[in-house]
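Long-time lurker. I teach an intro course on protein structure, and each term I like to show students one example going from raw sequence to a predicted 3D structure in token notation. This year I'd like something fresh instead of my usual example. Would anyone be willing to generate the tokens for the chain below so I can use it in lecture? Attribution to the forum is fine with me.
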Amino acid sequence: QLENEGYQNVSAWLDSPDFSYPAHTHPTATAHIIVAGGMQLIMDGVEHKLHPGDRIEVPMGMSHTATMGPAGCTYVTGEK
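-- Reply from a regular --
Happy to contribute to a lecture. Here you go:
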């Protein structure tokens, strides 16, 4: 799906339960599609609770944090 939308470097990630990424940015826009588990992503001061089937796009250079749920999180990402 992401490749059809022009995203590159599409890959699957599996993060362990309660794993956290501190505030960071990416040099490209990114899309995240949740496959299993859950993730809390905070971007621009807004909390997004993501579950299987949810999708979020992070603009290039936007600072954000991510914390995985108690079951961890499997998700697919791509860069544009």
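Some talking points for your students: The beta strands are 8-15, 20-24, 30-43, 46-50, 55-58, 64-79. The two ends are 13 Å apart (CA to CA).
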